[in-house]
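A further point concerns the way the authors explain their paired sequence and structure data. An entry of this sort, consisting of the sequence and the corresponding C-alpha cells, reads as follows:
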Amino acid sequence: MKLAFLCILSTLLGTFAYNPDHIAGTTPPYLVYLKSDYLPCTGVLIHPLWVITAAHCNLPNLQVILGITNPADPTERDVEVSDYEKIFHHPYFLVSSISYDLMLIKLKRRIKHSNYAKAVKLPQHILSVNAMCSVSTWAYNLCDVTKDPDSLQTVNVTVISKAECRNAYKTFDITENMICVGIVPGRRLPCKEVTAAPAVCNGVLYGILSYADGCVLRADVGIYASIFHYLPWIEDTMKNN
C-alpha cells in the first residue's frame, strides 16, 4: 500500500512539478555502477586502476560497470564491465558509524580513457561553503522497486556550513572529515536511489555520500566523506598496492 501511494505521488510530482536543479542525461564519465548480489552502490573512477565508493556498501559478487545510464536495460551500448583485484576499506571504518566511510577498489586492468570512462580529479584544497556541486546517482522506479534502477539523475546543490549541518543532523557527530551538501530545510520528496553518490564540484571529486535523511536527488542534505581530508590514505593505498 505504501509503495503504491509513493508510486502515485511520484508520478503526480513528476507531472506537475518542475525541478530547476534536476538534470537527467548521459552518464558522467567518472561514474561507476557497482552491481552485486545485495544492493548496488555508486562508485567513482579516480585512476585507470582505482574506483572509490563508500565503505558501508556491501558488495558480494561485485561487478564494476562503467558508462551505463540505465542498469535495467540489458541492451545498452558503450557499457564496460571490469573485474576487480582487491577491495580496501578504510582501516578505521566501523559499521556503527558514518566516519571513515570510504572504500577503494583496485581493478584487474587499466581502464582506457574515453567519452564514457574517464577518471575524475581529486581535490587540492578544502571546499568552501556555498560552493556549487553536482550529485549524481541512479534512481529506482517507485512503481516497481524490485527491478534495477532505471534513471540516472543529477542535482546541482551547494555546500552548507558545519553549523547548518549539525542543526539538520543533531544526533550525528559532524566532524572536519565530512562535508554537507543540499538544501535546508530538505524537500523530503519520495524516491529510492542508489547509495554512495559522489559530490563533484567544478570537475573535482570532493565527497562520497555516507548518509542522508531523505533523498539527495531531491536536494535533501547529505553527509559526505570529505575526499580532501582522506587524500593521504587514498594516495598511500594506491601507491603501495
